[in-house]
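Example A, followed by Example B.
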Amino acid sequence: MSAPVKAAVFGAGSWGTAFAVVLADAGCDVTLWARRAEVAEAVNSTRTNPDYLPGVELPRTVRATADAAEAARDADFTVLAIPSQTMRDNLAEWLPLLAPDTVLVSLMKGVELGSAMRMSEVIEDVAKVGADRVAVVTGPNLAREIAARMPAAAVVACADEAVARRLQAACHTPYFRPYTNTDVVGCELGGAVKNVIGLAVGIADGMGLGDNAKGSLITRGLAETTRLGMALGADPLTFSGLAGLGDLVATCSSPLSRNHTFGANLGRGMTLQETIAVTRQTAEGVKSCESVLDLARRHGVDMPITETVVAIVHEGKSPMVAVKELMSRSAKPERR
């Protein structure tokens, strides 16, 4: 009988913890690294993560630690579930501890500020590994629903299809259905840009602009994402799948979405600092909207919704003024 797959999950926030549950339910031996020792102690002693997923019972095969070396030891898969903008420094610190042939798995949906790199590119740059050692898990994956074992699907993306299939098997459960894809660029961009569009839809909802506005923003947001993806060599069909449309719809329609909730608070008139103060967890789109726009400008891609979000979130523009400016743009054919 073969030994169980060993997985290390770095990051004991809501999504890291939820994915640890998935891996354990799929039969893996999981070690969850928590930055704070008290979180690790709570997981081990109460079988819950009260700070991030209160009330959710964790499997016995999930063990937590605040010791990065202990977490990383002999892991077949090293899952990274930390804020995108901290990943470079954290991974550089953990690198000497990682198992030699471990597959590095990104759960993060962001673009790095300054470099405009996708998370898989940052991992390859820091770890000095090839694309066949880096995988991405993305899709409509709201952490609390998955931790409650409600049905969900996801995409496991890797340039090496055999690696993607290995990870697929390691996280396939009766309630979590992963599909494979080799279009890492498209899958990552779908996950990163949907956070920005989620902010835009949240702002519109907070302003009470109605469902027509929401439907329009989701659709035109998907068009922006596809344009950027094609400029970077992604397969446009990826954006009609789980990593694109699926994730976008979940983020833009659920009260569990951090980005939607953040945007809704801005739309209701809260300042950026007030909204940050009431948001306990990272809303990736708040920082990534700037790096996504930077990436688009580097490739000459027009992304007016993303520009509007940046103007509201980081330049202090009134949401009402920004919406009027967005709506008064020159008319054009839909498919352009």
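Example B, a separate protein, is given below in the same form.
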Amino acid sequence: MEQDDRSLRRGARTSPSDDAVDLSELASVSVEELIDAVETGDAAPRRRHRWVLPLRIAVSIGMLGVVWWRFPDVDWSEMFPQFDRPTVLWLVGAAALTFVTIVLAALRWDAVLRTLRLRERLRWLVDLCFAGQFVSNVLPTTIGGDVLRVSRLSRRNGDTETTFASVALERLTGWLVLPLLTLFGLAINPGLRRLGRATVLASVIAMLTLVALVAVLSVSMHPRLGGRFTSSDGWKRFIAAIHKGATELRHRPLAAAGILTTGIVYQVAQCLVALMIAAALGFSWLGLTALLAFYPAVLILQVLPVGIAGIGVREGAFVVFLVPLGVPAEKAVGLGLLLYVVGVVASLFGAPSFAIGGRHRTAPA
């Protein structure tokens, strides 16, 4: 009876405004509460600390202020480009390639779902990825887009645990690529290995991330660690689902290689977006290898929940990594801010998917 009630509640929650209310609260609730909200279809728990959002905004402003304080003599009027024809073309190209990266993310997710023996129409997955990008970039939460994808796809296929595992594994395999790209960029460009603090910081971030991800995936696949939750109830079922999915990837190496390849293409495309924006700002001479080495480290740092949408963290990291390469501090800050603006513009096209997608009902039993 309780399970039936849960299914009814899950199917009844169809209003786009309900999704907006739920997702706006995600930044300050625990993982267990998020899982329960997705599992039951109930509204997400209310924010316990109303000061969290103002604090994160203050942190973002403060970190930008630190950059301003450390470089008092730079001309901040040069932070944004002159909007001539070449600049506009570079920015339009960056926005178009950002659309492509969202489609690539959907392709990676589709590959994970197929490995877990869940098949969905690619167009539906693309719509969900656009809606998730809209949520992540517009609402004050770093994981709201992923929760939206789990919630809506599980209502469609009726398999919450496997859907949750697909998003978790898609994220883990995607993140696995980031430190590998940093190490690759440093390996193929000897000059990048002689930049002092920038080189050391990028290397440490890459190695710590790689070790952490390998540890998480190893635990997930281990029959005595991840497998001990196989017969569990409640939220532990989600850990069991991740274990099952990770085991499937281990037993299907070609599928796992395809997922990682798609992830590499996705992250390289992200670096090309940054390169286009750098060209718009007037320092296209930076080169792709420098971005392969340092941009993944920036992406890792900007997901830390210390600001809003990575603002401040991203710009400060670009200053640390790019100033030693001769990029003016104001241009490094401009690169970070323009990457955010281009991402927001691209994610706005997910607003219709976000609004309309909430009307889908649970798949019939």
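On Example B: Residues 299 and 322 are 14 Å apart (CA to CA).
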